[in-house]
Design a protein that fits this description.
There is one protein chain. By secondary structure, the chain is mainly α. It has one domain: Na+/H+ antiporter like domain (Na+/H+ antiporter like fold), CATH 1.20.1530. About 80% of the residues lie in helices and about 0% in strands. The chain has helices at about 5-35, 40-55, 60-65, 70-90, 100-130, 135, 140-155, 155-165, 175-200, 205-230, 230-240, 240-260, 265-275, 285-320, 320-345, 350-360, 365-375, 380-415, 420-430. InterPro entries: Cation/H_exchanger_TM (IPR006153), CPA2_transporter (IPR050794), Na+/solute_symporter_sf (IPR038770). It is a multi-pass membrane protein.
Length: about 425
């Protein structure tokens, strides 16, 4: 490539990145003004940039502003951000000390995970009844059902944590129970996601390829974990946290590339690295992990812009309103009813159980990552991706208003705000 052409392309990429990050910042500001989680505004703006640009201009101008070569670079940047962000996300998928009792956690997890899996089956049935071939695709039915079921069962741990903190529910029995259940459900969701990708190949060879990818990624993650437990690694972490963060980011990118080379999505490799980082107090790993995740979080808006350009532009014309509405209704029903039923079975009174159900309905960024994994694996077609994205953003945006409605009902009924589930109270009385 001619040096002048290279410099011109690099300048184009830098200008596009700057514009996209500014738009993401505006989206976060708009979400705060609307009292919504920042991720809702950021993701909505990112996904709509491409379709809105194309609607307001002709194709020639759109291709001049975002040519294919620039989109390819932006895709690489967005995937890099996603991998780095997942290191921190997966690192949090571990129940911490002081969590809720196992009986209450099991009951809530069963309700908030199994019921959404069933609504995934109902959504697949709806697609079959309406004979929506664009939303069905051509992958084997077991892989398609399992992937749809996983997307319906996710509760976003990062967004849920932020909502609990903003509303002062971090130390409440409801907040601890909801967060611990979300961690367990997302962990199970990643396992089922991996199985769905393996089944998506339609033959046993696909499962073996997925198994080989898991072995390769898991081997790298195991080596990393053993290395991080050495005295040298702990001293490096204490003395040079920034250098440690760079090394962790490089390990995540390398493991993600390896798993993708073996036919598995890079997301799984990144999650393995996050899970492999020690969660004990032997070294201050939290600081470098936070740095890696924060860097990735800054770049994730680019990932959503590329998704909007490459996926949603086609999906807007192919997705039916019945598919979008059905996905939204079933998504809400699965988490709200499942979370409420599980909390009631755990011993929570009616209104606190309803609050837990609302918290379980928070999808956020984690849901969008799972959707991207399904699309990249060729299991989720573009129209269904659009319907699931609408469901993810809508359910996340609903959380705040629904929590306020529950709070008002609780105040009218003079029900204490922090009523402990019976399982929690019973454990406390025996101490």
């Amino acid at each position: 490539m001619d040096p002048s052409d290279f410099l011109a392309r690099a300048a184009h990429v830098v200008a596009a990145l700057a514009a996209l990050l500014l738009l993401a910042r505006a989206g976060r500001a708009a979400a705060r003004w609307l009292r919504q989680p920042e991720v809702v505004g950021e993701v909505t703006v990112g996904l709509l940039v491409g379709p809105v640009m194309l609607a307001l201009s002709d194709r020639a101008l759109f291709d001049a502003l975002l040519p294919a070569a620039v989109i390819d670079v932006l895709k690489l940047v967005g995937q890099t951000g996603l991998v780095l962000y997942l290191v921190g996300l997966a690192h949090k998928l571990r129940p911490g000390p002081g969590g809720p009792p196992r009986q209450a956690l099991t009951a809530l997890t069963a309700g908030a995970f199994v019921v959404p899996l069933i609504t995934g089956l109902l959504l697949v049935g709806l697609i079959g009844l309406t004979q929506d071939e664009a939303a069905r695709g051509h992958v084997p039915l077991p892989a398609f059902f399992l992937m749809v079921a996983v997307t319906m069962s996710i509760t976003a741990v990062p967004v849920l944590s932020r909502i609990l903190g903003d509303r002062g529910l971090n130390d409440s029995a409801e907040g601890r129970l909801a967060l611990a259940s979300a961690i367990v459900m997302d962990s199970m969701g990643w396992i089922l996601l991996t199985l769905a990708i393996g089944l998506g190949a339609g033959h046993l060879g696909g499962l073996w390829e997925s198994f080989a990818a898991l072995l390769a990624g898991g081997g790298c993650a195991l080596l990393l974990r053993l290395g991080l437990r050495t005295g040298t690694a702990r001293r490096l972490c204490r003395r040079m946290p920034r250098t440690t963060a760079v090394l962790l980011g490089g390990a995540a990118l390398g493991t993600a590339m390896l798993t993708e080379h073996f036919g598995m999505t890079a997301i799984v490799g990144a999650a393995m690295v996050g899970l492999a980082i020690p969660g004990d107090d032997l070294a201050p790993w939290a600081r470098p992990v936070a740095s890696v995740s924060h860097t990735g979080r800054l770049l994730t808006p680019v990932f959503f812009v590329v998704t909007g350009v490459t996926v949603l532009i086609k999906a807007f014309t192919a997705a039916s309103w019945s598919l979008i509405l059905g996905t939204l209704v079933l998504g809400c029903a699965g988490k709200l009813l499942g979370g409420y039923a599980g909390a009631r079975f755990a011993g929570s009174p009616r209104l606190p159980a309803l609050r837990i159900g609302v918290l379980m309905n928070t999808r956020g960024l984690t849901e969008l990552i799972v959707i991207e994994a399904g699309y990249s694996a060729g299991i989720l077609p573009a129209p269904l991706v659009l319907a699931l994205v609408v469901m993810a953003l809508t359910t996340t945006a609903m959380t705040g208003p629904l929590l306020q409605a529950v709070d008002r009902a609780e105040r009218r009924g003079a029900v204490p705000a922090a009523v402990l589930p019976r399982a929690v109270a019973t454990e406390g009385s025996t101490r």
